[in-house]
Amino acid sequence: MSIEFKNITDTEIMLNEQSIKKPFFRSRYSQVLIQLFVDIIAIIVSYLLYTYIRFYSGLYSVVIKPGLLEVSLGVVIFLIFWLLVFFFTGMYKNWYERSPFDEIWAVLKVTFIGTAVIIFALKYDGASSPRQLYLIYVALISVCLISGRTIARNLEKKLRKNRILTIPVIIVGTSKRAYEFYKKTEQSTTWGFKSQGIVLFDIEEAFNNEFPALDFSKQIIGNFDDLESIVDRYHPEEVIICSDKTNHDLLLSVVSICSDRNLRVRIEPDLYDIFTGQTKTQNLYGIPLIEISTQLLKPWQEAIKRIFDITLSLIILIIGFPLWLLVAIGVKLDSQGPIFYTQPRVGKDGKIFKIYKFRSMTFEPEKKEEKWTVVNDPRVTKFGKFIRKTHLDEIPQFYNVIRGDMSVVGPRPEQPKFVEEFTKAIPHYKRRLKVRPGITGWWQVQSTSYTLSLDEIKYRIKGDFYYIENMSLKLDIEIVFRTIYLMITGHGQA
Fold it and tell me: Which of 23, 92, 404, 418 would be a feasible disulfide site paired with 166, CB 3.0-4.6 Å?
């Protein structure tokens, strides 16, 4: 028996939308919350057991026994310490991403090192058997954490199996592959996926195919052209790509749409080669999917990058202040007009901000046209050539960094007009707006081209994407040192 896709109408799609049941409870952070809860219990229990053994069991000599206030304070301190350690060591990643054995091994490593830090800090308050106490506490907290996390894993698995805890997803792709994956989500309930509906790349093409599934049409909620409005209407937590086509632009458009809305994207493994070199992927334990990471940095990594940005900016602005004062005087003496040049630029998430530079061109207040500077631009002043060659005109942007408009390292911010033009020509261009723009970047230290063309922008985007998908403090420091070298050698455009 088969189904004719041409019988699917807009009215049926609307009815399909209404028939999709909303999950009882949905949260992509459910696993983190459950783990956090059991970790808190484990930390408290292990601390109380250790305190009893150390001070109240009679096994070790005691000068002063801690009272209720001291024990309560110790619980708070240990909670803060261990939760920070777990957070910074990646202990709250999705447990589908690693096996139970891997998680047990991770717990043992973290607790072993963390306990060593505690022992070093406390110096065992004169205890006669510090090594023994160290091993006891390692054993206590490890057993408590492993037991708690095992319970949490099984609890979440049961909640997902019973559809109490679900991850709402929209399946995007071709008819056969999309429906096959839909059937898998219905059968493998422990995955936790709950399909809100299927969006086909091309319904018209599917009309000509016969498919042995009478209920398939009930799952269709739209065509790919309407994907943006569909995800805005359904608010899924993830979008899953199931396709036997290799249309790069089409698939990258899915990633771009989801990236703008902070939605996770997963693909079936045989599409991996399409994204190689362009996305940061992660194999998921127990699920035949690969994740396209739209979250570029973990919160703690963002915090470290921000601290690095502010610290470096303050050092450069304060220590180099006498030099920046001389540059400002040079700008003022060389030509009439203000010392600083300002211009609207597009920042993170499309936010418009005002960028600051030392003025390097003749002052033309009546001209507001957005255009790129060309090589040997006649508008550049004599002193402007020097500060542009050495990139000293960019120094005021460290103020933008402190304000939070920019980062020290990142894709260069463009003018709104160009962002609009490039986005129309290159659908995935807006992915570079997921991070703060930078004073310098990977493309800037790799290229000497300053021409404006679509091919050049595509080449620049590859450099921007390389940086975005490999962001780290180490890479930022490398780019900063490369930039300093280029400043000394006069790499800039005059």
Answer: 23
